[in-house]
Please model this.
Amino acid sequence: MNRLAANPNLEQCPDFTSAALQACRAPLLGPTTDDTQAAVTLRTIWLAANATLKVQWQAQVESDTLEAAEQQRLLDETAEKNLADQKLQDAALAEEDRKKNRIHHIVIPDRPRPKWAAEEVLVSDFALCKLDKVQFVELYYWTNRGLADAQTNFRTGDDDSMIPTAGVDGNATWISASVARPAASVIPDHLLAPLDFSCAIPRFITSLEQRGWSNSRIVMLANFFGALMLHKYWISDDVLEMQALLTYQEEQHRAWHQAIPQPLGAWNLSILDAAEMSSIYDRIYHTERNRTNQEYDLKVFSRLPLRPKTRSCPYAFRASGHWR
Model:
């Protein structure tokens, strides 16, 4: 059905009795039909056709209204989708900017200087960068010596050079050279004194909280360090047992960090492995025993009189220090 271009409700019925429409009446004239009857017939036909057009027009108006509503609905849905996509994109860009420029987005509260501000410690940028990447970092950076080293480098450092490195999302990013440089005098965890280890733990946990680590991981690490300090080796007079405890902490802590991104994932670090602890102690014990035996052999050899060189020597000396 063809679309109507004009509203038939606005059309007026022509005056079929007028002389201008004589040509329209002429085909209807006959022995029984005069001009008046022909005009009435034409008017009846026009009104019937106009009524039909009015029905078609109403249906056309309703169809156009439904089509316009559907098009508007589609436009609204598209606009809402585009707005949602834009918000997601803006949020992703904002999050990326927050990660890259974290210090610019830290909210500074409007308050007087708190009393604990004097007790704040300055931790090495290198160590904090490791925490942001969820990588293992030595506890030395939270000992008194490590904090003093960070304070000294902070006051005297003037290296503004930048170097490329892998960001948290795996993309290359540029960071300050001082952030990528470890401390020259860093001490491995297994060589830390128990007192230094004890002082570093609360500061380390505080740094984890400040760097936005999840509460579950912070609690796990806190329980891990607590379990170590409650272990029987912690209060032992045997130096090797204390060394085994600190070595276990370093090896397991490092392995835990390395396992996090792996397919099998990490584990609950706070559950100590007694068998691994015993294995580490045996390893340290045998290493120390071999070192002692070597020192003893060298001491014994140094006291023996020099003998003339011969093609063969009938004597053999073993590590126990006895001739055979």
Observations:
- The radius of gyration is 46 Å.
- Strands lie at 162-166, 172-176.
- The longest strand covers residues 162-166.
- The chain has eight helices and two strands.
